[in-house]
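S1.2 Input.
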Amino acid sequence: MSNRDYAKIQIDTLPESALEKVIEFISFQRYSLGLFDDDDDYLASIPGMTESIKEGLATPLSECVPLSKVWSDV
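S1.3 Output.
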C-alpha cells in the first residue's frame, strides 16, 4: 500500500472535527513545496482564513490591539 493510499484511508477514519487540522497541514505542505501560485492562493486554502481576513478588515482600528502591545520592540 502506498503512503498516499494509507493517508486516504486514515483520513476516512477521522472524525469531521479533526479534518480542519489535516487540511491546514496539507495547505502548509503545498505552500512549502511551492505548489501555490501566490500567497493569496495559499491563504484562501486555509479553512476560515478568508472570512477571518474579511472580519479583520471590517473591524474599526479603535477596536484593535495596538501593535506595540503585540510586539513591544516595534
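S1.4 Remarks. The mean pLDDT is 90.
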